[in-house]
From TrEMBL:
<dbReference type="GO" id="GO:0005829">
    <property type="term" value="C:cytosol"/>
</dbReference>
<feature type="region of interest" description="Disordered">
    <location>
        <begin position="1458"/>
        <end position="1480"/>
    </location>
</feature>
<keyword id="KW-0677">Repeat</keyword>
<dbReference type="GO" id="GO:0030139">
    <property type="term" value="C:endocytic vesicle"/>
</dbReference>
<feature type="compositionally biased region" description="Polar residues">
    <location>
        <begin position="1353"/>
        <end position="1366"/>
    </location>
</feature>
<dbReference type="InterPro" id="IPR046837">
    <property type="entry name" value="Laa1/Sip1/HEATR5-like_HEAT"/>
</dbReference>
<dbReference type="InterPro" id="IPR011989">
    <property type="entry name" value="ARM-like"/>
</dbReference>
<feature type="region of interest" description="Disordered">
    <location>
        <begin position="1801"/>
        <end position="1829"/>
    </location>
</feature>
<dbReference type="GO" id="GO:0042147">
    <property type="term" value="P:retrograde transport, endosome to Golgi"/>
</dbReference>
<feature type="compositionally biased region" description="Polar residues">
    <location>
        <begin position="1458"/>
        <end position="1472"/>
    </location>
</feature>
<dbReference type="Pfam" id="PF25468">
    <property type="entry name" value="HEAT_HEATR5A"/>
</dbReference>
<dbReference type="GO" id="GO:0016020">
    <property type="term" value="C:membrane"/>
</dbReference>
<feature type="region of interest" description="Disordered">
    <location>
        <begin position="1345"/>
        <end position="1366"/>
    </location>
</feature>
<dbReference type="InterPro" id="IPR040108">
    <property type="entry name" value="Laa1/Sip1/HEATR5"/>
</dbReference>
<dbReference type="GO" id="GO:0006897">
    <property type="term" value="P:endocytosis"/>
</dbReference>
<dbReference type="GO" id="GO:0008104">
    <property type="term" value="P:intracellular protein localization"/>
</dbReference>
<protein>
    <recommendedName>
        <fullName>HEAT repeat-containing protein 5A</fullName>
    </recommendedName>
</protein>
Amino acid sequence: MERAHSLLLNEEACSQLGEHQRSEFILEWLTHLKKLLPATDRNQRRLVDQLSGVLIGSPGPPTRWLLAHCLALLFRLGDPIPSSLMVERCSDIIRSKDDSPSGLPTRLAAVACLGALYEQLGRMLAGSFKDTLANLLKAMKSAESQGRYEIMLSVEKILRGLGASAVPCHRDIYKAARAMWSCLLELQREAAFLWTSELENVATLCFRAFEGSNYNVRVSVAKLLGTLLAAAVEPRQPAGTINLCGKKLEVMDLLLGGFLRGGAGFLRASGDMLKGTRSVSKDVRIGVTQAYVVFVSTLGGSWLEVNFPAFLSLLMELASHCRATQTPGDAVVTRRCVSFILRSTLGSLLGEKAQTNAAKQLCFAVASQKQAIDAALADGNVENRVSSADISASQHILTCCLLELGELVQGLGSTAAPLLTDSSTAFLDTIIAVLLHPAPSAQLAASWCLRCIAMAMPSHCSLLLDRCAERLVALKSSPEAVAGYGAAVTALVAAVQHCSLGIPHTKGQEVLDLAEDLLRSASQNSRISLQRTQAGWLLISALITLGPAVVEHHLSRLVLLWRCVFPASLREQESELRRGDYFTWQVTLEGRAGALSAMKNLLLHCRELFTDDITSRLLTPLACAVALLTKSVPDCSVRGWSIVYRLKVYELLALLPPHTYQGTTPPSLSSLFFKLTLLPPLCHCDDLPLVGPALHDTDHRYIEEQLHGSSVGGGSLDNNPFSLCVRSGEVPAPLPPPVALTSAAVHLFGAVFPHIISHQGSTRGSLGPEDIRSPALSLLSGALESVSPLLRCMAAEGLARLVQVVGDPGFTVSVSLLCFDRLKTARDAASRSGYALALGALYRYSGGMGSPQHLSTCLGVLFTLSQDSTSPEVQTWSLHSLSLVVDLSSGLYRAHGEPSFALVLRLLLSAPPTHPEVHYSLGRCLHALITCLGPDLQSEGAAVSSLRSSCLVGCGVMQASPDCLVQARAISCLQQLHMFSPPHVNLANLVPALCAHLCSSYLCLRRAVVACLRQLVQREALEVSEHAVTLVKELPRRDNTQLGEKQRVRLRHVTIKEVGLEGALFTLLDRESDSGLRKDIQETLVHMMMSSATSGKLGHWLKLCKNVLSATTGEFIEASQEDEDLSRDDDSSAFKARSESCGPFTALRWATRRFAMECVCRIIAQCETSDAAHFDMALAQERRLQESTDFLVLHLGDLVRMAFMAATDHSDQLRLAGLQTLLVIIKQFSSIPEPEFPGHVILEQYQANVGAALRPAFTADAPPDVTAKACQVCSAWIASGVVSDLRDLRRVHQLLASSLVKVQTGRDTYSQLYNEATATMETLAVLKAWAEVYIIAVQRSRDKQSPGRSADLSVSSLTNDMSESESGGAGLLKLVQSDLSTLSRLWLAALQDYSLLTLPQEYTSQLPATGGSFYTAETVNQARVHYSSSWAPILHATSLWLHSTGFVISDDTPANLSRPATPTSMGQSSSVSRHKSPEDVNSDRLHLILGIGVEFLCSPHSEDQMENITSCLRALQALLDVSWPRAKIGNDQALSVELLSVLHRLLVTRESASVHLAVLDLLQQIVMAAQEHVREKRLDDGAAEKETLPEFGEGRDTGGLIPGRSLVFGALELCLCVLVRKLPQLSPKLAGTSTTGTRTRKRKKDLNEKLEGQINMDEFSLSTVYMVTCGFSGDSDCVVDQISLLTAVTVFLLSAGPEVCTTEPVHMLCLQRFTASMDSKDPLVSPQLMAVFLPLLISFLLDENALSSAPTASRSLHEAALKDLMRLGPQHSVVFRSLVASSPHLKCRLEAAIRGNQESLNAKASSANPSTRSAAKSSPSITLKTNFL
């Protein structure tokens, strides 16, 4: 293939190839030529000749399209004059009558060339246009399907190229191409008559085309019709004076008529109406529905916003028309069509503000239907006032409006709050009024709308629940009220599972009481018995959705209700069947069906409560429920209720484990399955494309599924009112009961049948062929030959699973041979396709069957079938089966790779485009082949290179296909190829192609594009971004582009040009509704951001996020100036909301903007691990001048602005994201100094903005989660130290103070809106914030008093003491002191709650029955989470407060404390605690703090717990700094030892140096406490007056220490642990010594024996030295760092007292260690010792005056020191000289001592020999050297 990469065709190489290789060679050359033509010089004549040769060489479809493009491009870039000759030549070929096999491909190629030439050259060929067109239209009359298809494509291109020049022939083309929708779509660009005079005719033509159409035809026709209608409403060309308003009405009448009458004329429609027949099929109505969407989408969101009232009126007329709702099935289809139109237009085209206005219009439409509702309220007999037709019409209108209203509100979220407060719409009143409508569908739609409101705005859930419950009680005598309000309460309670804030726990009790009351009173009034029964069980089902935390309190009552609704025994049920009328059985079946639905909900939502005990109590009701299925109800008129009852039984049994009811009802179960005669088709998901279009891959699934029979379509909310309780947030569409029953039976069969099989197998032995195999095989074989594709798929799946279950290799082979035999003999396409698929399905479940011979046989059969061009269906199915075999054969298939590639490529080049399903199956095969080869595709061999080239050629062919599914498969293949061989995929070509399809109208194509982009950006994000921009340059701009395409082109061009591919993805994310695709887009953006945000595109990403966040039509809350002194530095005006319409984004939704804020947080986190300059202003500014690099700190203003905008938005979710971003900003930037203003930090300039961003979170209507997050930000802001002025600090402090007041008022405020756990969350968040503020205030105060003191580990390192203002020390503490009395009691209460909640499960009974101070007994599980995240700072703050009070209890209880915030054992506010002494209260507090801290430190969690560990340690330090708790701990040796054990474990499990230092500090305090205790005992015992020293502490007379009980041993163990972890060389065990233990025990015994009689507490010091000197082993195997060891000994000697240092063993061991080290040959040890030893020796020297009068001991020390100096000086001359030179005073002292010593020697010599005295004076024989320099 490399020889094909040239400008001219290598004819010699081409001639040497076979036919199939030659086709591939030519296609490869044409592909390469397409790239070369614009960039190289061309030999035009030679190229024209070669291309002409290809033209007459019978090229296949891909080759002819590429040939036509290259030929036209050659003439456009070169000399266009000869193009007319080429046009004539192509026309001659078309006119020729060549009927040979090669003639048709040549004619088709000529047609394609004509289209490409006119498209590229345009008006230059206008002269020959008429003749060419006439020739094409004439040829089309006698052409076959491929010829007509190609001619219409050519005509479409001709129209596109000529534009207005083709106007004279437009009508001729229109007449000839009335069935070619793409051609008409191109024609309408210039042919104005199509959307003026011929509009009605074209519309009728389109309506008729919808009849019996498939999905692709409906999409194409709907696109044409919608575009024409849009052009009629807003003409693209001036067409004189046109009444646009009248035209709009005409267009809407056309659409309405098409939906109601289809393509029939007036007379036929009228006749059908008189006959009562239905003339409009589902195809037509679904096609018209799609045309509606195209019509509005083409006109755009602005037109929709202006004309929505009129458009809504049209839709309401459509929904209420009697012809559209003749039958229930028609009504369901109509409602779904209207809902689809509303959702596709309002949900996709409008921004949040426009959606709010649309919601108001929908509300007005609902209000307009109040006539029927008011009549129902006034009189129960509605027929007297309102006709049944009016009621039916109103219910359909209300259902459509309310369901869309719910969708809009749910999408808007909390931004929809203004709707509820707008008095002009009476939003809630209007919706609630519909609950009294007599039609169930309207009641259920209103209930679902209320559920959406509760999900969007949780603060209204409880209020709406109370309102509806009150109305239900007040109107429970009205059937409509009971049904409507019962459904509303059900929907509202079920909404709680989507609301994290919940509802008050008491609401569950109220709902259950209401349900019981309805069930009890159901029999009192027969007129409303049915409604009360259904409403009661609806409420119970909804109650169960609240989860185990609520249901477990009411489970016994629920079981009683279930047992009451069923007979007490099977015998009672038998007698029950012999009595009862229609009404009695109707109510009975309704009640039992409701009870079964409640049981089903219990299994779905509270399965852990379905224990064995509950199961045993429900066995009898279950047995009765199943037994009733086998009995016939006396009255056959209740068949509908019987179906519903049977459905509920099946659904419940499918969820229960089969062993639950094994042996209980075997007769009933056995008869149950004999009734399973209707099985829906079951297919593997991968086989569904064989049946038809994959609905899950389209945007029209909501309506398209209505065409696939009752087994899929026909869903409506009123089919099953219990679907209001579903977990899904989408509108449920339960199937009609008969259809749902069949589906439930299948699920139950699948759950129970294996259990029955295994049970029978265990009793009868293995199941033989005569039992199951033969009948099953016969049944499935017959189904494989069915004409129904769905049945064939199901049969193939069933046959494969049967083989899998049997597990017999012989049976597997026999089934395979059966398939082979049938394929040899079968001649019909259905049988051949079915057995071909069965071969692939066998591989799916048999693991490849492991036989190469079998594989070869199978491939031979499938290869033959796949080449049967006479039957595209057989080709499609066999190729699909081949892809399964390739996928599952693993390494066995490698040998068949080349022929498979050749087959796939050959078929791709020859298969006609009229059968896209064949191309799709070929794409599956190519994808499987690429996966099979895998990493081998990276090899460089000739064979692999050829295969890789085949892959690329095949992908290119599929990319050129006009079918979206084939294009999506091509992208998937390229994605797979890029994964295995990235260098061989050209991103420069792939990425622009992906971007071109990014906004495709086909969901499957968008999914494939985004999935491929997600993979590409994980490795080459920068390259992908750069290649995406090239799309803007390559795609041509056209002025005559249709309206719809203009919008898509703007998205591609403008967005990518201005903000790159990232901006296009953000736009797509905002408009996309598919959840899976949204997730893929988000992951793609995250990968792109993480790859490029810190590599040069930081500014681009931040600007992009800022633009996304600013793209809203709403207004932000601007910073209000509540304080008079805020104006002096308030720059919040820079953060006021303003219109951002000039930006690249418009009206983005809150979810997209929230994701942008999450991206900002990710960018900050990534910069944290990148360059230090990102968080250093001075360094960033310096480096910015030297290099073109961007840094995060330079964008701080934008970061704060974005956080402010998000934190003040109307959306609660966006506010949370904004506050989180603000918190991250504070933590990361608070310590960065401002270079221009020394002593200040860069965040100081944003003080006012931070306060303004926080203020809305503390308003009265702020949600608790927002306030809790704001409290966290407040504490971080105060603790950061940014604020240097107390007045500025007071603003944020006031916010916390207001929250504290809110906490003191108790949880009554929240009880009406949210769950009690939310009050716990907010209260603990406030207390935690105050605790953090108090901790930082105390630390600043201490730092100011003692600046040299090291910082507390629990204090953030961001603390700034640069300011000497009052806030740096006592100022902040003074602010906190005013509330400290209240806070201390609240803190203690929170700690007591936490201590109780952390008790083991077996102590649950000890929890208070009424709950704690801040939680209720019913919300224990929810509260634990909040306590776990808040207790550590509260513990630390409480310890600091107790430290400040010295454990002295004061009686200053705050007057405004409305609830007993202090627990009974903690303070003075309760009656019990008043009887306790201060000593007892203090003991309780001490043990509370110790217990919490020690319990946590014993088993700290591994993730993110370092801050909590540090808080615990510092809390214990603060306690032990006070004498009273220190005395308590010193007096309790067991407690002290336990503390040391915990600290030792913490040292072993944590590597943090800060934790180790804190542990050592605590160790020192614990030892100090023990020392103080010993001293106190001495003083109390009068030890000073006694002659003998009493024994206190450990050791006593033996000196023995008991491990585990000895404080000394624990302290030594901990010290050794620290030393060994920091200095591993000290451990002989680590150094390889195994005899250390024996020596250690011996040395310990010697030490203890020699220390008898000494003060026992000194054992700690002595034993510390002993443990250190355990490393003083003389063993040569022991490697010890001498310097570190001597340093440790030196520190000990300096720290210990004289009584320790002078002890003989210590004294001796230390001297031995120093002596041995001085004699060491280590060049590092000896000089350092000399530097210390020589000054000591010099300090012992005496001068000549002192020497004479010195005592004997001092004189002896002087002489010994001088002697050592004389000896060591020459040995260590370097050290000696350095010492003397650097210390003049030592030099003088040494010289004086030498002179004194000399004189002393002379005096002695003179006295000993007087005769030589004079001679010695005159001439000394020896001169003493005094200068050692």
